[in-house]
Amino acid sequence: MSITKKSIRWINVCDEKDTFEIHDFSYSTEGNKTVFKTPERTYILTQIDKAPVYELVIEGQKLEMKNKRVSAYFTTKKLASFYRA
Fold first, then answer.
1. CA 4, CA 62: separation in Å to the nearest integer?
2. Which residues 6+ apart lie within 8 Å of 63 measured at CB?
3. CB-CB neighbours of 60 under 10 Å
4. How far is residue 36's CA from residue 27's CA, in Å, rounded to a whole number?
5. What does the pLDDT read at residue 80?
6. Which of 5, 65, 68, 70 is the most exposed place for a label (fewest CB within 10 A)?
7. How remote is the C-alpha of 21 from its chain's centroid?
């Protein structure tokens, strides 16, 4: 998952060309939580470790993505690159 101010982009880790994007959303941050809202869903990203490790909870309509699963835990791109090296 990649998040910018303009989009939330889901990327298939097995095929980086296989993506799903959301452009219509708002967000707010409070403490260790960032909440992204779309008309269909609420995505709650909570920092659960200083490493940084984040937990994702999705509320609302089921996210339908063919042959894909959404990870419950994420880290930053910078930290993920560190662990791959």
1. 22
2. 41, 70
3. 12
4. 4
5. 47
6. 5
7. 11
**d(Cα 34, Cα 41) in Å, to the nearest integer?**
14
* HEC letters along 16-76: EEEEEEECCCEEEEECCEEEEECCCEEEEEEEEECCCEEEEEEEECCCCCCCCCCCCEEEC
Q: What is the pLDDT of residue 84?
A: 40
CA distance 80 to 42: 25
Residues for the chain: how many in total? 85
Q: Which amino acid is at 47?
A: Q
Radius of gyration of the chain (CA): 13
The answer to whether 51 and 72 are in contact (CB under 8 A) is no
